[in-house]
Amino acid sequence: MINFDYIKPATQKAAIDALNKDATSQFIAGGTNLVDLMKRGVVSPQKLIDINNLPLKSIEQQKGFIRIGALTLNSDVAEHELIRKKLPLLSQALKAGASPQLRNMATVGGNMMQRTRCPYFYDTTMPCNKRQPGTGCGALKGYNRMHAILGASDKCIAVHPSDMCVALTALDATVVISSRKGDRRIPFADFHRLPGTTPEKDNNLQRGEMITAIEVPDNNEFSKKALYIKIRDRASYAFALISVAAALDIKGNTIQNARLAMGGVAHKPWRLTGAENFLKGKTASLENFNQAAAISMKDAKGYGYNNFKLKLAPNTIVQTLKTV
Amino acid sequence: MGYFDDDDRVNGKAIVTGKAKFIAEHEVANVTHGVIVGSTIAKGSITAMDTKTAERAPGVLAVITHLNSPTVPGYDAGGNPVKGPTGGKGFQVFNGPAIYFNGQPIALVVADTFERATYAASLVKSQYQKNEHTTNFDEAGKSVVALEDARYKDNIRGEVDGYKNAPVKIEAEYVVPIEVHNPMELHATIALWEGDDKVIVYEKTQGVKSSQRSIMNAFKLKEENVRVYAPFVGGGFGSALRTWPHAIAALIGAKKTGKPVKLVLSRDQMFTMVGYRPFTKQKIGIGATADGKLLGITHEADSITSMYEVFNERSVDVSRFLYACPNVTTRYHVYPFNVSTPTWMRGPGEATGTFALESALDELSYALNLDPIELRLRNYAETDPQNGKPYSSKFLKEAYQLGADKIGWKNRDSKPLSMKEGEWMVGYGMGTGVFGAGRGTAKALARIFADGTLLVQSAVSDSGPGTATAMTKIASGIMGIPGNKVTFELGDSSLPPGPTQGGSTTTSTLGSAVYDVSMALKNKLVELAKENSIFHTTEIHSAKAEDFVLENGNIMLASNRNKKISYTDLLKQNNLNQLEVTEESKGNEEMKKYVAYSYAVHFVKVLVHPATGVVKINRVVTATDGGKIISPKTAESQMIGGVVGGIGMALMEEGVIDNRYGRWVNNNFADYHVPVHADVPHIEALFVNKPDLILNPTGAKGIGEVALIGFAAAVANAIYHATGKRIRELPITPDKLI
Fold first, then answer.
1. CATH code given to domain B23-132+190-234+240-271
2. How far, in Å, are A125, B44, B570 from residue B65 at the CA level?
3. Which ipTM score applies to this complex?
4. B474-527 pLDDT, tens per residue?
5. Which residues of B touch A319 (CB under 8 A)?
6. What would the DSSP string read from start to end of B566-592?
7. With respect to CATH, is domain A221-323 assigned 3.20.20.140?
8. Domain B440-587 part of CATH 2.30.33.40
9. What's the gap in Å between the CA of B267 and the closest CA on chain A?
């Protein structure tokens, strides 16, 4: 790890100014991922701007949505009464992530900004287009058991590792981004990117911007039937092989609306829009669930070690829909 | 012999309160920090090294490579000065440009702080002449040729491949991947030279004496000039059974800089520098009569080693001695690859071998429509099938019974896919673990003080099983001194030589020495007591040592407990501050007529989810014949630890190397999965607890290895029962079950 400067500004403005002033600077919040990356030489910011002093730790009911400050701890969000009651899907997804120790450090904004756990990204002696554009993708023909089956490119088949983001994608959240120019809002589903030819870009946050909050619609109809299922190699503290976030609005036996997203399958949390559209107005039956899963897998592709996901993913979708 | 009731781990409080110092925690004045740089290719040679930038980095004292390393005198002989597992010329760190595996130590940076050494290590650059490596284990027997010598000759009892003629037979292949010990404590060495020919070394080791010997050989030093300390060892599982190149590197670094060097491996280096359980592919053919009498077993295995050393764990041997069977053929081959040397890992050989054998036996039981335990009982070995020798003790039948009763084996419906809980498929399975029970040589010293306390010493390590606790109990039981007045000192090579902690032999070997030395000390006290006025009767003078009992710090005749004298009074009356004895225990002649094994029978209940392939181990009952259990609490802990290791082996542990680079891709705790609490159910560890007094006077046989052996098969068998799927490749991850 190289020597670096460290500052801890007291205001949002000072933090954003500092970020703009120094091209090699980076924000640090919980540091649960960034410190690892720095230790391994994957990233080497020359200045860390510690934003933990900023007043962005809050969970508030607003009209029609819940606003969560970007520095709110994952553990605090998961246990908050408002979240447990109105956004159970988010609470479940958070609890499925990492370990209690990590959740006690990790923030909402940091969770969104975490990098892929692809081993080729982490080992600086290996090729990786995300870490070092142009060196090739080590995983494409390598050990790709954890890798993408949807939306990948031949430049990168990494997956985004977050559980929280899968739930937020399903819940139609909005990301509030602040910069010197003021605030802007983008739909959560548009925050993370697909790799395409620029896998070095994980998301659409621009240089000089800061995530300040997440706004999640509190549609009551989705809070009753919500389930996050995560399939992994051990019962806790493991990244998803496949995860599915599902929320159903059902009247009688008819699905009024469905929200579905999948983790462990793509460079970003993967919203299953096709399946959602298919399920709308259908009866909640195994047959329809199977068909929804089949629709979701239409463009899926395996890369060898991860071929099993082509079966595990639809199975998990059906399992989640059945159970929810 | 009675033991005091207090069953707490004698050093438990020190460990949980952080008072116990593990290797890297020892404070040594003016210590500097060493960080190893690993190679980035798997085969070839170093053509140039640029260490200048690293040398100029802040705080750096030295950058050592093969180009400037001080001579290691033991390298002269051309052999391996550092005792390896089972042969080969060894890897001589910093002694030449050749690269044998990816991650091989090629430089050591020594700096004033760990952080500065780590940073400078990232600045060391090397150029290579690259040669084509191979780490693709599927090439064993194809492009990679097996090692050849007498050890790899086929071993045949009865008819070759006799199973083939049996009316009922099973043939199958099994794969056990690389598994890495990964003790929680990172391997560490602190080396402190006192002049040219004298060194103090704090070393993570399971054997302070064997480490001392290796260091003596490497640097050609006298025994009294090498002192190895390992007072607390945070787990080893076999990875600390030998002295590894990084320890020699630390000694080299300290020699070069003239300052003490502390070297702690990083977690990723734990995958390449301190061994692992080797990848092994096995084939079993097993045949029986229609009523379940085994007619033949053929067990073959292909395993791996490094390019510079041989590791030979003979995982097929278990098929020669676990069951009575007239025709047994075993074939075992080892293939060299561009990897570091594997080593013994908990249950070495048998853990791998029983995965195949105990899975095959389960499969055979279904083919025969026979209960798996009944099949084992029909082939119960009453004498060792290899040599006809009787067992010094064998209570495997009792262990089957104990475990089966506890888990309710009879209540299950043995048909595959027959049991459910909600949508989860339910399965029960069992597997047998076996491991030789040995007894080696050990010396121990016992010293009683005038204040009534007792000190017992031996140069052993306690890597977790609770050796100090068990030894305290043995000594306190014989001497009649409460456990809290007994101190067992270990972890220092200058103490009387004790055994290396491996192969489940510590309690048997060292326990015998502690038993002998305690008895000798008791006899000395009895001799003194006989001269005391209180005992001045003819009755006392004709009494033998064994007629006396020692209780609560007093000596008395068993036949007359009214007359007694305390040790403290006795020593004071004789103007003695202390009384000491040293004894060596060398095993017994009688044992040559016998064989001894420990056994564990693992029973497992699993839940398997049909759609997602998730396996939950719901319940574990493990019944063990480990002879007399000296310390029930630490023994139970050891069995639980072994089972947790077994859960890892069965369901999640797999070391992965990307063959294109010959480089690890999951060398960290996020990607190399070991069980977490949520994976571990309630584990019931039961003991037959019958002493084997032929093996040694304590009656203990040893349990550390059998705690894990046979467990993976029990899980695989339970999964078969639940799902009807026979998984023969570990680990059994969800993808294998959907």
1. 3.90.1170.50
2. 20, 16, 62
3. 0.97
4. 999 999 999 999 999 999 999 999 999 999 999 999 999 999 999 999 999 999
5. 609, 611-612
6. EHHHHHHHTT-SEEEEEEEE---GGGG
7. no
8. no
9. 12
